[in-house]
Automatic annotation (TrEMBL):
Keywords: Membrane, Transmembrane, Transmembrane helix. Residues 214-228 have a biased composition (Polar residues). Residues 207-228 are annotated as: Disordered. It comes from Dreissena polymorpha (Zebra mussel). This is Uncharacterized protein. InterPro entries: TMEM179 (IPR029673), TMEM179-179B (IPR059010). The chain crosses the membrane at residues 12-31, 67-90, 102-132, 176-197. Its main location: membrane. PANTHER family: TRANSMEMBRANE PROTEIN 179, TRANSMEMBRANE PROTEIN 179B-LIKE. It is a multi-pass membrane protein.
Amino acid sequence: MAVCDFHILAQAILYFFAVIAGFVVAIPIGVNRINFKGNCILYADTKWSNNEFLIPSSNAGNCNFPIYFSVFGLIFYGLGLGLYNMYAVIRSRKDPAFGSQMWVIPFMVLNAVQVTISLVVACMVSVGLLTLCNGLTGEGKLKNCWDRENSEFKKVDTGDTFNSGNYYKLLTTAQAGAWIAFLIWIIQLVLSVLRFIRNRRQGSGAMMDKAQAGQGSTTKIAETEPTS
């Protein structure tokens, strides 16, 4: 039994890492919204009044887009491609040429799209967190962005109170996960391009071997022809 294709194995592992990164991004942002009663605080324009601050909810899309991309672009897509590549790893142990028969260009294009969108998501989370922290600490009333973690908040419109939870830790975790996902897709794209080049070379080598085998067969037949 042949050794498995380590190139495909590396890609499979990276796809599963993308799944983990998806959870790291989606869960903290989702929990943060639950803690703030469904409000999104990424890009929240904090305002101070009489030593109290107001955090108007930002556009829900600022939180929804990173969550949806994490679920569909990281978790579902990564899981599907990870399982597909693991199947290819198993097949490559029996047939070393199986990897060269797999589709490469469609996934190479999709991974390039993933690189672009993951960069957008990472920037959204980072800039959104920075905007929130600048609003909280901008007037010098708070020394650090995390000073109001696990504090009691009150909704101005309804008067309901709630606990802010670890909003800063949650968002920094999501930020780290988003940048890790971006790095994963860059490496994945590079591996896809290298595999495309490898498959092209293997295909060209196989065609040359067939051509040489055909020439050898023709020469052998010509040599055995009786002379008149």
